[in-house]
């Protein structure tokens, strides 16, 4: 299988050459926005009242089935990817494996993946990940020793249990002679020898181990996500962010991506935890109707016309400038060609 870190550069088209898309490349479906970690560098740790806190839930299976039925009725090419994860720990939802089964049987995407902290990965879930052939699972690692892990994640999960869970999955894959799911473990750059220690610690239980670049979430008053996580290394992290950033006008996500939250709200963004980019609901309209709606078109125009400040979330976000996370530059694409 292609390494997860190579997917973005494999058979890649210049987005300007293929716009407008008849359907998104990427669909994120959120099994749960609950999480058993409350990481200090993540919005999960915020305690102030917000859209996110008011909508804490597992996605009901009936809603998930509705989404898949909408996708089956949406004619045309397959989605490039369905991501069964968004803002929470997906394995918290007891229906996660059934959601994977339904997605696989629907055959509506080139690949299916998820992102997890792997702390809830048990033998039964691992069996189902192999049985229903999840293509990729990204595993987020936050620390290499127990004390730091507790500080960062605000949880008492044993970090060695995470390794053991991944070993269970590896053993089942070997038994079934399956290359799926491809396990890709990642950790934020520590700007220290911890990077190499991380690679050594997880390379035996993963198919790929890599260091991820930092980014800041949408800005929240009184919160410094990167500063809370990096502390002594913050200057290195900020310098790195500057070096991998470029000046752009348009965020390409609204042209390629749909994200369905657990409550059914639909956004074109995978970082907007505060809900400012919601453009519809699967409980009221189909995904195809939302994608082709006037509201979606107007949001695309906001990006191309450098009017992001008009949106509550976009005005507080700069991830679209991050070359590591956002590869496409569509600045200058004519609005009149969107239809």
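^ structure tokens above, recovered residues below v
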């Amino acid at each position: 299988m292609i390494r997860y870190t190579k997917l973005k550069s494999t058979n890649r088209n210049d987005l300007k050459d293929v716009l407008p898309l008849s359907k998104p490349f990427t669909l994120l479906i959120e099994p749960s926005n609950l999480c058993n970690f409350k990481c200090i560098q993540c919005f999960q740790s915020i305690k102030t009242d917000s859209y996110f806190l008011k909508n804490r839930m597992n996605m009901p299976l009936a809603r998930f089935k509705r989404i898949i039925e909408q996708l089956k009725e949406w004619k045309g090419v397959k989605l490039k990817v369905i991501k069964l994860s968004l803002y929470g720990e997906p394995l918290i939802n007891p229906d996660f494996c059934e959601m994977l089964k339904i997605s696989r049987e629907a055959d509506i995407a080139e690949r299916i993946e998820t992102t997890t902290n792997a702390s809830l990965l048990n033998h039964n879930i691992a069996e189902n990940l192999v049985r229903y052939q999840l293509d990729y699972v990204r595993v987020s690692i936050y620390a290499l020793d127990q004390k730091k892990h507790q500080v960062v994640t605000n949880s008492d999960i044993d970090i060695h249990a995470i390794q053991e869970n991944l070993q269970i999955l590896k053993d089942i894959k070997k038994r079934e002679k399956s290359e799926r799911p491809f396990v890709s473990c990642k950790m934020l750059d520590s700007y220290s020898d911890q990077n190499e220690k991380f690679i050594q610690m997880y390379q035996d239980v993963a198919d790929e181990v890599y260091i991820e670049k930092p980014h800041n979430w949408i800005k929240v008053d009184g919160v410094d996500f990167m500063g809370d996580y990096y502390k002594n290394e913050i200057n290195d992290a900020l310098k790195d962010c500057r070096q991998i950033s470029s000046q752009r006008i348009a965020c390409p996500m609204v042209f390629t991506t749909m994200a369905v939250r657990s409550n059914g709200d639909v956004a074109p963004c995978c970082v907007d935890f505060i809900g400012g980019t919601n453009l519809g609901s699967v409980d009221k309209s189909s995904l195809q109707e939302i994608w082709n709606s006037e509201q979606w078109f107007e949001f695309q125009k906001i990006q191309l016309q450098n009017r992001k400040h008009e949106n509550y979330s976009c005005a507080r976000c700069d991830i679209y400038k991050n070359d590591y996370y956002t590869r496409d530059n569509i600045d200058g694409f004519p609005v009149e060609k969107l239809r």
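The chain is about 35% helix and 15% strand.
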